[in-house]
Amino acid sequence: MLGGERRVRATRRAARVHIGAVALGAALCVRPALTPGAGTPWATLGLLTGLYLACELPGRCLFFGGSVPLAAGSFFPLLLAAALLLPPSAAALVAVPGSLVGRVDEPPAAARRIWRAAQLAVTVWAAATVHALLGGPAALGAPGPGRLPDLPYALLPVCAAVLAFSAVLAALDGSILAAAEQLPPRRAWRGLLPRSLAPHLVHGLAGLMMAVLWNSTYGPLAALFVLLPMYISCWVYAQYHREHAAHRATIRALVQAVDLKDTYTRGHSERVGRASVLIARELGMARERVEVLRFAGILHDVGKLGVPTRVLRKDGPLTPEERRAIELHPEYGHEIVRGIGFLGEARAAILHHHERLDGGGYPYGLAGRAIPECARVVAVADAFDAMTSTRSYRPGRPVPAAVEELERCAGTQFDPRMVRALARGLERYGWSGAVTSDEARVPLPRGGEAPREVSVPDGPEGKGTR
């Protein structure tokens, strides 16, 4: 316990030292602009700083619901425009006020704001320095009715500045992860630059357009025609990702609740989601429907939350009353998710994934095409993972044997089209991870044998009854 506390204290100390070092570097970057006689273009600097501050303030305002474009200090087109329009030390100042007042969702707020301000000051300074060293200001032209920008040649220093911006930002992001979370450096920096470079190039082109308009005869007002649409698009993009993050958090919470209650099938839900996606892609479904099928597979057993735990964890065969309790879980699941609008037809899959093509399933005994397509997909995925996973009451089957069993039951229990799609997907991509939390194989219950039928293909409800 004391060792863990020491590690936590050491981690916090390392993070504070790292933030202090980057903040000192940022102070050195901006210092020349504050020196008397430096010739800092205060009018341009003040206007860009005010615009950036205005981009961050909505995150602190209840009227906007506390939402900002991407995160505190994230409106990069404006920062890149500042790197193209201002000397390096002046450009480094643009992000500081906005970052210091921007929204922070997690403590410690002061340290996070200081880190973000220092990080962006250093990053913008690096981009502006590279741009200046490659002759970017001369290629961009002087403000007013003088020289026009030499756009073909101005692109090279702009691209180099964006590359420097992206590289320094990724380096600093990785360094704070390594310091604050004690991650190995290789893991902390893995993928940061490749993932961010393309979006930053788009932001750089927007910054170039803004800088060109800023220096034109139309002046800064014309530059707002680039700024406003870009800001709105960033806001919409952020709202989309925030909504998806909320969806994932909702699903993750439900799945974790099921896994905690039904330890026999821990991990089963995620694998059924993967198998459902495999089938949906082989069927050529649209991307949106594939995502819905993934949700359906992951949440197909959420109704087990309404089944008594003693029934779910029973080691022997189920009584008729216990079996009836188990067979209510699709209806329980449908009731649980009925109000979650983004699930769409996944709700029907949760309700009907135990229906059989011949009408012998539950809860409603639907047959043939009366069973929703998404439910027929999840039924095959569910049975496949149930057969290939090792459970506490029987060993898992090899993948070819499970596919053979599905093909044997196609036309009576399962839709042959879904079975063929799964077989094609497995042949193309293979399958891995089909082991539940039981990990090691254990002997079957006394008097039990590996089941032949798969009419109840998941959980302990099938023990000795399939």
TrEMBL record:
The chain crosses the membrane at residues 75-102, 114-134, 154-180, 192-214, 220-238. Residues 243-438 form the HD-GYP domain. NCBIfam families: HDIG (TIGR00277). This is HD-GYP domain-containing protein. Residues 437-466 are annotated as: Disordered. Residues 265-387 form the HD domain. The keyword Membrane applies. SMART domains: HDc (SM00471). PANTHER family: CYCLIC DI-GMP PHOSPHODIESTERASE TM_0186-RELATED (PTHR45228), LIPOPROTEIN (PTHR45228:SF4). SUPFAM superfamilies: HD-domain/PDEase-like. Signal peptide: none annotated. It is an enzyme of class 3 (hydrolase). Its EC number is 3.1.4.-. One of its GO terms (molecular function) is hydrolase activity. InterPro entries: Cyclic_di-GMP/3'3'-cGAMP_PDE (IPR052020), HD/PDEase_dom (IPR003607), HD_domain (IPR006674), HD_GYP_dom (IPR037522), HDIG_dom (IPR006675). Keywords: Hydrolase, Membrane, Transmembrane, Transmembrane helix.
